[in-house]
Amino acid sequence: MSTLQAHGLAVDLGKRHALAGVDLTLSSGRLTVIVGPNGAGKTTLMRTLAGLLEPADGEVTLDGQPVTRMLAGERARSIAYLPQGGTVAWPLPVSAVIALGRLPHGEKPDDLPPRGQEAVAAAIHAVGLEGFENRPATELSGGERARVLLARALATQAPVLLADEPVAALDPRHQLIVLDVLKNQARAGRTVAVIMHDLTLAARFADVIVLLNQGLVADSGAPEAVLTEEGLARNFGIQAHVSHEDGHLVVVADRPLPVPGHGNAAPALK
Ligand SMILES: Nc1ncnc2c1ncn2[C@@H]1O[C@H](COP(=O)(O)OP(=O)(O)OP(=O)(O)O)[C@@H](O)[C@H]1O
């Protein structure tokens, strides 16, 4: 059981308050989906939650321990982070790239002990990459590569998994497969948070939705409580139609609202 918490988190990037006082609790067993308009601060929040950015104010704790004070190895074993649009620099076989997820455990990718081999095999199976093991990771499509990088994060078997837009490059079938994997990770007791832009998919899989806007948590809670037509107008600047079909919440964006001066990006530093 791992609880990742942000307490009054403020992060400045360049001349912007990317985060301006975020309080957030990510609990084990739950899939939290972070949504919000472009520039709202979602990636900044996730990178700070992963201990990769030092906040100007406030702190992030994992089970009460500040993440920026954890040793790098301990943090990498505890928090798996999948960045947005990750790339693979070297033409390593897919299985070797995924095996890199075992490095935080001191396991060498070319000499994995049985538990490392099991973790890699389970990750390959989870994202449907059987048959790709020996392909050079640089010779894959964008969606295939995205699944390799997710598998690398899964192979770490960290109790906390943070994924920045893990399904953005995927076809509809693989979006569902990957979100099922992430949901199952949460059901198995992990603490899982993902960033997504597809609000209908977010509503379908999220236990909790956190809506970020202008560096602040504008709303959080169950999908039907957060993804309301009024909330979407206020926070995304869109007129949307929210309905329920076959038990699923469906969000259709109809048109952008002409809100004068509507800016969703982080406010400039005074
Ligand atoms: N390196 C940087 N230097 C200065 N400002 C930055 C930097 N990176 C991001 N920002 C600004 O910080 C704010 C938050 O950016 P962030 O990437 O966290 O947004 P986001 O919600 O993830 O957006 P998107 O949906 O477009 O991915 C934005 O206003 C952005 O312009």
Strands, helices and their partners?
Layout: E1 4-13, E2 16-26, E3 31-35, H1 42-49, E4 57-62, E5 65-66, H2 72-78, E6 79-82, H3 94-99, H4 114-126, H5 142-155, E7 160-164, H6 172-187, E8 191-195, H7 199-205, E9 208-213, E10 216-221, H8 223-226, H9 229-236, E11 238-245, E12 248-256
Parallel strand pairs: 3-8, 3-9, 6-7, 7-8
Antiparallel strand pairs: 1-2, 1-4, 4-5, 9-10, 11-12
Helix pairs in contact: 4-5
The structure holds adenosine-5'-triphosphate.
Adenosine-5'-triphosphate is lined by residues 13-14, 16, 18, 36, 38-44, 265-266.
Structure description:
It is a single chain. With 270 residues, this protein is of the alpha/beta class. It has a domain of 183 residues: P-loop containing nucleotide triphosphate hydrolases (Rossmann fold, 3-Layer(aba) Sandwich), CATH 3.40.50. 31% of the residues lie in helices and 29% in strands. A 6-stranded mixed beta sheet has the order 6-7-8-3-9-10, sandwiched between helices. A 4-stranded antiparallel beta sheet has the order 2-1-4-5, with helices on one face. The longest helix has 16 residues. The structure holds adenosine-5'-triphosphate. InterPro entries: AAA+_ATPase, ABC_transporter-like_ATP-bd, ABC_transporter-like_CS, P-loop_NTPase.
Name its key features.
single chain, alpha/beta, four-stranded antiparallel β-sheet, binds adenosine-5'-triphosphate, 9 helices, Rossmann fold, 270 residues, globular
Task: Offer a quick outline of the entry.
With 270 residues, the chain is α/β, with parallel strands linked by helices. The protein has a domain at 4-87 and 158-256: P-loop containing nucleotide triphosphate hydrolases (Rossmann fold). 31% of the residues lie in helices and 29% in strands.
